[in-house]
Amino acid sequence: xxxxxxxxxxxxxxTYLYVEHAxxxxxxSAIEYxxxxxxxxxxxxxxxxxxxxxxxxxxxAAVKLLxxxxxxxxxxxxxxxxxxxxxQGETRKAYHLLHQAKLCFNPAQHxxxxxxxxxxxxxxxxxxxxxxxxxxGMEGARVKAAYAEASRKYGVRWSGRNYRRDEWSAADxxxxxxxxxxxxLNGICHAAILSGGYSxxxxxxxxxxxxSFVYDIADLYKAELTIxxxxxxxxESEKEVEKRVRMACREKFVTARLLQRILxxxxxxxxxxEPSEDALGEDPASELxxxxx
Length: 293
Prior knowledge:
Mean pLDDT: 83
Structural class: alpha/beta
Helix content: 40-55%
Strand order of the largest sheet: 1-5-7-8
């Protein structure tokens, strides 16, 4: 069993690796993906998210290693635009999940978290004295303004957010780029949420879906990261925008220090105060597995 205290923190990890049409196997303490034109190794312990695209086979040994070091796995469609299944994060404790659940199911505390999420976008001063309806209106206006500003800045025609998953190629290039960029951002936020021991389903602004909390957290960063990245890539060329926007997002996520920010932001929004190891205590369920002497 790997000592979890020896693993790199999320903020020090590599953001993601997307693999398709390859075999993924384990080699020592790394994963190796094998294609016809060669083999590439990646350090498993420093990888945050492995996205397995079409035509991918992964060995039991590789999955075991990734599970031990806390690398999240997503089984996705081509270019990461669909998410079919997920792996398990590295946390072994439930403190964050219990705290999140308490806030989620207490109406007054739930509302405070919603307001805190909107205040994150506008700044606390801009949100002072606003009720929830006003904050939602401000958020809608903020997103529309972000699209309009990016359209003007990069010279890309914008006629609104319009796409259908079952008719992917029918959407224009900018909508495909936005979808691919947002899918990637969702995946990284998903991995961070699992890594921190939170639930992806217990959302505050978004509710009732298995990934509600993922959408809550990803929305904090879209105007800053994925919207400008998608418009910049589309302005350069409309060819292979999905592939190119992933590469652009990787650079933007690193520059913005996204992995260093996600968990501290979640902790701040939920008002998390870390308990001491003594307060956490041992897992009471472990006694069920102890053999009698």
